[in-house]
Request: fold
Amino acid sequence: GEWKGDHKSGFEFEMQYTLKKAGDLDLFIWAYYNDKPKERVLLPGPDPQAPESPYKMSCIASKADPTGSFIDRFCLLQPDTGLNAIKDVGKVNKQGSSKNLPLDVGKKEVQATSDMVLAGDDMVFKPQVRDKFGNPTGTAEGNLTLEVDTAEGERIALVPEISIKNGLTMYEAKYEPTLAGQYVCHVNLGGAPIAGSPVNFTCESAIPSAANSSIYCPDPPFFAMQNYEVILYAVDHYGNKCTRGGGSIHGRIQSATLPHGQEGQVPVTDNDDGTYVLTMHLVAPCDCKLMILIGNDGKDGKSGVGTELPAIPMNFISAKAAEKE
Reply:
C-alpha cells in the first residue's frame, strides 16, 4: 500500500487486496507505531460500537469461468444393496409400480476409476462450475454444454440437470452407451472447454445374451466315447460381439435314458475371447439333448437365473455298431 493525501486534507494509507475465497470474512488491520516498533496494535473498525477491527465482509463468487471449472471423468450408477436400496424398494411396493420413479432408484453413484465402460452402463457426467479462482458458482441456462461423439460417428447433445444442494448449484448429465467403440464427451462453458474436457472413454460389450448369441454344433453322426465340441459365440443384449470372457455359461445333458455313470453336467471352457466350448462326451449310446444356459443375461445382469437356448438334439451311437452297418 501507500500513503495518500497532504497536511491540509490529511493522510490516508491505501491498501489494495484481491479477494479470491468466497464466503464470510473478517478483515483485521494492525499498525506499528514508531515509538513502539515491536508492538502491534489492532486498529478500530468502522463500527463505533466495536472498539477494534475486524471489518465484517462477505465475498461472493464471480461469474463462471472455464479456467476454474473442471470435470473429473464420470460416475457409474450401480445397484445399491444398502439402506437406500431398501427404501427405494419400499417406494415401489407402496406405489405398485416403478414407472414414475427416477431411473437411478435403487442405484448408487460410483466414481469411475478407468476409461472403460460396458454397453448399457448408466453414466453420469458431473461438471463442476467454478469462477476463475475455483469458487463454486452457477451459470446461465445453455452456457454449459455437453456433447458426445458416439461410436456410430454421431454427435449428440446432453441436457444437464440442475439442482441445488446445500446452497450450491450442481450440474449432471446422464448417458447410456450401447455400441462398442470409442466415445468422446466435450464439456464447454461459454464455448470454451473446461479442465478435464474432453472426456474419452471406451465402451466394451456387455454380458452374453441368450437371444443374440449363436451356436456351432458339429454334424452327426455322434459316437459314444468320443469328444465333440459345441461352440457358443457370445453376443450381448445390444448386438455387440463379446470379445472377452467371464460369462456365466452352463451346459447339461437331458435324456430319459441317460447311461449309467454318465455325468449330467457338460464341461465349459472359457476362451476369454467371447467364445465358449462345451465338450460333449457320452459313455454309451444315448439319444439326448444338449441344454445351454446363459446366466444373468438381462440388461442389468441381475434379471434372474438366466435363459436357456433352444435344445440341441444329439443322438450318440456305438462306433462298433456303425462299422457293422
